[in-house]
Amino acid sequence: MKNKFLKPFAFSAIITAMIFSSCSSDDSTTDNGGGNQEPTAERYITVAGAMMQETDGDGNGGTKVFAVKKSEALNPEFSIDVYGNGEPVLSNRTARLQSSEDGNTLFNIAYTGDNGGTFSKYAVKGGASFPQQDVSVNISQYAGTSPRWAKLFDGDKTGIAVNVTAPVVNTTEDGVYINTRGVATVLALDLQNVLISSYKQFEIPLTTAEEALGHHIFRLDAPVLNKAGNKLLIGLWMRKTNPATGQVDSNFTRLGSKTLVVDYPALTNPQVITSTVGFGDTTGYRSFNSYLGQDGNIYQATQRDSGGSHILKIGQNNQYDNSYVFSLDSALGVTGSYVDSWRYAGDGIAYVMYSHAGAENQGFIARLDLNARTATQVVLPYEPGLDFGQYQGFVVDGDDVIVAVTPVGKDGNIYSFNRKTGAVTKGAKLINRAGNHYIGVF
Interior CA angle at 247 toward 243 and 249, to 5°? Predict the structure, then answer.
């Protein structure tokens, strides 16, 4: 892959000596991720767009951002051109962005390249103004240059970055297959003070029978904190080695969906739990994939599921509730459903971006009722080229669930969905460029 770097934000000196001591949030620091930043009268909405590198829609040419007031974002007479007017984000490929709960702060970890693994924090001032706050910290020494990460819903205090090294095939001296394993890293970032507060590294064994067949963990992603605040649950992407050849088995019968559970904040005592309802991976892709509901349970989507995507439920005992069966195929009347990205909106309501068999990767959006286990497709001007495969950011602000909807290379719009009524409001026009697409709002 060609290296293509964009002009980064102006950066202060990067921390090269990591700080490992566990740090707690200062009592005088606000929970909005902005330190002493004065609150704005109206929430900012940061719009992010991914640029193509070599192929339409590949998103590998970098990311730009541009911030507008919420009233502007929801105004259909307003236009936003992130590619012409936005600010590049430090990242060799698509940046992995998060925002504070109030929208006043943007967090980023650069993805791959010389700056891969660099975590930075910016104030959102409107337009293309994103002055850097504090300093940066590079976590690549521990989590690699392509870490996956998510911000915990803990008042913007903590981000969790995860990674697993390339799995290694282990055999006996006689060449008899034993297992395939990589070394996992779970790292906690102090978002307020911009430093590494703790990290742990370990192997994650499956059962002896599963490992003997070649099953192993390929990727970690989408961490979420449980209601008690004492367990971190991390999604797993599974692969399989052919024990006879030592090569990746591309066509295999999947195990039940799995999740890694570790003690929090210690990040120790790794355990793997398994669903008998879903049979797909639980990592999502560049976005949140598990959410703590207001009922205290965790809801999690599956990908690459042989029966189409499911929404799974993990109870407050940190085990899968296999009595909860929510098949998107059944609820939507489709086959081969696939959750690209989704967001819990409150009161058991969520919105999911998905594709399905026969749709040629075209994306759709549905409103989910997690309690009733029903799904209804949102009425939008769907068309070919609408692909949510790299989508990252939803904004939930009051009853509004705000998204960006643009086919690759075509103009689109911001839309707002009322989580209580399901009503759809068309917002600002999003100006596009050939091969590019908008990947979220923050």
Answer: 80
Looking at the domain assignment, is residue 158 inside a domain? yes
Q: How far is CA 161 from CA 54, 281, 401, 426, in A?
A: 28, 18, 26, 35
For 19-157, where are the E strands, in sequence order?
Answer: 44-50, 63-69, 79-80, 87-89, 96-99, 105-109, 118-123, 136-138, 148-151
Indicate the SS3 state at residue 42.
coil
| Position 92 confidence tier, pLDDT thresholds 50, 70, 90 | confident
pLDDT tens, 136-183?
Answer: 999 999 999 999 999 999 999 999 999 999 999 999 999 999 999 999
**Residue 82 domain-assigned (yes or no):** no
Beta bridge partners of 340: none
Q: Please give the average per-residue pLDDT across 333-346, as a whole number.
A: 98
pLDDT in tens, 365-400: 999 999 999 999 999 999 988 999 999 999 999 999
Does residue 35 lie in a domain region? yes
**pLDDT-derived band of residue 286, with 50, 70 and 90 as boundaries?**
confident
The answer to the question of residue 330 being in a domain is: yes
Pairwise CA distance, residues 129 & 67, whole Å:
8
* 393-427: burial string, b at 16+ Cβ within 10 Å, e else: bbbbeebbbbbbbbbbebebbbbbbbbeeeeeeeb
Strands (E), 5-123: 14-15, 44-50, 63-69, 79-80, 87-89, 96-99, 105-109, 118-123
- Domain with 138, as residue range(s), is 14-49+69-75+93-356
Q: What is the pLDDT of residue 162?
A: 97
Residue 292's CATH number: 2.120.10
Number of domains the chain contains: 1
